[in-house]
Amino acid sequence: MWNILQPYRSSIILLAALFLGGLLGILLPDIALKLKPIGQIFLNLLFMIIVPLVAISVTSSIARMTDLKKLGTILIAVLLVSIVMAIIPAAGIIALASIFDPAQGVVINLEQAIETGSGKMDFVSLLTTNDFVGLLSKSNILALIIMSVISGIAIGQSGKDGEKISAMLDCLNTVVLKIVSILMLVAPVGLGAFFASTMASQDTQLLTTFARAIALFFAAAAIYFTLGSCFYAWLGGGVKGIKVFWLYALVPSITALGTSSSLATLPVNIRAANKMGIREDIVDICLPLLVNFNKGGASMTTALKIVFIYSLLGLEFTPEILAVTLLISVLSAFIIGGVPGGAFLGEIFIVTTLGLPIEVIPILVIIGAITDAPATVINVTHDLNATQIIERLSGKRHHAISETGG
């Protein structure tokens, strides 16, 4: 039994700490409020590491793609397919959450002022900063990611000098991730204490909203997993593509559910793709890239977190916020999800970009921890779908070339 639960060990411990913290906040609010500084210290430590973590991790991962020209159209296809397959589930869960509001009128009151009150976004300030120093602020994470991607591409195309910088970044990345792992040792205590102080001043009905939000996600994930997989498989190979997909997708799905790791499932996915008859060169190039970029499950989780927290805070979900939510969801799937060891990066990304109070971080963590397994299943199985689609696109292109060349 323990072997089955081992992949979920950290999530179980964290959820248990948050549950105990919430219980303490409800039963002994006076004591719980005194624990807030402990949680604040932990979150401040995470905020202090967020900028170097994003800058170094994203830049080094992009820089490792040393020959972007060699990958050519396949890399472009991987990126475009990954973006589309992140937008679709994010838009779907937003629509469902708008119809079946998981908060159901429950509103939490927080002391911290909310910077998104008007619901209007300055996209210039959101995506860029007018000074290099601005990139060192956690409030400009989107601008930092954009510059990190550009820097990574530049390093990858700078020959031997770029290789030296890339090697140094890999070393720095190892150190930064070790810092994160050290901080995560006290995560249950820090977040448990912070959640206790948050619950001390809130209505107990807040707990029921979690159940509704998570139930909504599981229902949406089940629908998207079945119908979405059929649709993508059809795009990749018609009716035959659907049949061959479901014939070999079960083992990767079970492995993903058991390990809760897209990377750990990669060898199983490669074997399944080969059995499906997908071209070996496409499989060898696409799946290692897709395991980092194509994370529709993560995109769906991120979108639900934002819609849910806006409803809980009583904020208007305007068209501008919708656009930013889709952007954050895509980036969470496309880049944040590919940062190894980037625990809580998604939650901090949401809070800093949208100017939300930090008290909502434990709420976002609860949703993320419980939905992690089904989200991973979607990530893994849709990597197979994406490979089918990319093979079909690549095949059409080669067919067209052969016809014109003949």
Automatic annotation (TrEMBL):
It comes from the Bacteria. It is found in: Cell membrane. It is a multi-pass membrane protein. SUPFAM superfamilies: Proton glutamate symport protein (SSF118215). The keyword Lipid metabolism does not apply. It holds the Pfam family SDF. The chain crosses the membrane at residues 12-29, 41-62, 74-100, 132-155, 175-197, 209-233, 245-266, 297-315, 322-342, 348-370. Keywords: Cell membrane, Membrane, Transmembrane, Transmembrane helix, Transport. This is Dicarboxylate/amino acid:cation symporter.
